[in-house]
Amino acid sequence: MTTQRTTLICQQNEEGKFGFVNEQGKEVIPFIYLKASDFHDGYALVMDNETHRKFIDESGKIVFELECECASAPIFGRFDTPEKWNAFVELVNKKEEIEKRWWRKLIETVYIREINEKNPDWDVMCDKNWTNIRWLIKDEKVGSLLIYFCQDYLSVTYDCNFLNEKEVNKLLFDKHKFEIIKTCFDRIDVSNDETIELQEYHNFTFGSTYDGKIPIDTLLWYAGNRTDEFADQLIKKVRKFQKDEITVLFKEINERCRIKKRSK
Question: What CATH number matches the domain at 9-93, 3.40.190, 1.10.760, 2.40.10, 3.30.160?
């Protein structure tokens, strides 16, 4: 296996933690890891615990994460040949390109399935780069009250230049309807009562110890490699908002709170 020379040295401190020092013995990457490998081609494999592995570059930045349910798995067991290691290095070097391709695969899958579903009350649309997807009441504009998914979060939001914020607040809180929208989320991680914006982050399950709080890089992998399962979960979440009661509420808010354009 051909490797590039690195000036960082893996060491273990008195507390048993691993870190990296330079040739002068000065600490460069903190001694915080349960285990660590030497650097190969600019990357080292480190472990926070017995099942969570991370690849870091020589600045200590995480470039890739993976999870192994087997605590006894050798630290380089997955990269035990030059071909495997070189394939990984190529993967890291093309990370941004791969991320875009994986997200696009998920968004396209969800979009096609939703278009084929043909919900009479809801439209679905994506941005031109296929990085996010929106569900909105049929024939409404993007600024209306809608459901929005972008990579690691699902939200209910609207554009205050399209809907009158005070009117939205009055309608929802006077009739206690804001709580009805909240019940559609499996979990609420961000709630803003002033702008009526609700968000749910990282809340997907794939049989991982990180279920419900899956890091963005891991979600990326699921988007590209367990696409249908990811799409199933996302669509199931959206369906909770498309029940008759919520659909009627969205229509009411968009109609009554729309900012009227002044005639010239």
Answer: 2.40.10
